[in-house]
Amino acid sequence: MRRVLVLAVLVIGLSVAATGYAAPPGAFNVFGCSQLQGGHVTVPANTALEARGGWAAKTHGLVQNFMSSQTTTLSMGGGQPVDIAAFYGSITQDGQDDWGVRFAYGLLPLASGQSTTVVENIVLPHRIQDGIAVQTDDNSKPYFWGPGTLTWTCVVTAA
């Protein structure tokens, strides 16, 4: 079960992290950094930063369910969490069974050698599914996210 769930999370992360919107030099995906890059990303020094993230699902309705249920926050360097609701874009379709919603949040530049920790929290008050992740090896049972908090942490270092 764990193997299938990990694969599903990677598929979701890649879908969100590798979508077709152009990334400026200081952009990074918090989930991708946390789960696919070992929790660390290097960005150009003295360049405006942009934390990105989102949610992918099999249908438009499942993404709508996520958006109406979630509370997403970002915190930087241990500071107060910022509500990201206003920074989510429109729901888009990137393939037949690939719907998603993404956010981009601007951060101040870092000097060379300076680091900050960015934490993304998605609070889900009840169970939701994305139609992609499954909890069994034979793909017969959907995986439900929540209730609870999904947390991804990324240490961002300027070079």
Structure description:
This protein has 3 helices and 11 strands; from the N terminus they run H-E-H-E-E-H-E-E-E-E-E-E-E-E. Strand 6 (92-95) and strand 7 form a beta hairpin. The termini are far apart. By secondary structure, the chain is of the alpha+beta class. The chain has helices at 2-17, 30-36, 60-69, and strands at residues 27-29, 40-43, 49-57, 71-76, 82-83, 92-95, 98-107, 115-124, 128-134, 142-145, 148-158. The chain is elongated and about 50 Å long. The chain has one domain: Immunoglobulin-like (Sandwich), CATH 2.60.40. The strands form 3 sheets. It has a 5-stranded mixed sheet with strand order 2-11-8-4-5. It has a 4-stranded mixed sheet with strand order 1-3-7-6.
Give the secondary structure arrangement, pairings included.
Layout: H1 2-17, E1 27-29, H2 30-36, E2 40-43, E3 49-57, H3 60-69, E4 71-76, E5 82-83, E6 92-95, E7 98-107, E8 115-124, E9 128-134, E10 142-145, E11 148-158
Parallel strand pairs: 1-3, 2-11
Antiparallel strand pairs: 3-7, 4-5, 4-8, 6-7, 8-11, 9-10
Order of adjacent strands in the largest pleated sheet: 2-11-8-4-5
Spans with pLDDT under 50 lasting ≥5 residues? Answer: 1-20
- Which fold name is given in CATH as the topology? Immunoglobulin-like
Query: What is the C-alpha radius of gyration, as a whole number of Å?
Result: 16 Å
Number of distinct beta strands: 11
Shape: elongated
- Taken in chain order, the helices and strands follow as HEHEEHEEEEEEEE
Mean pLDDT: 89
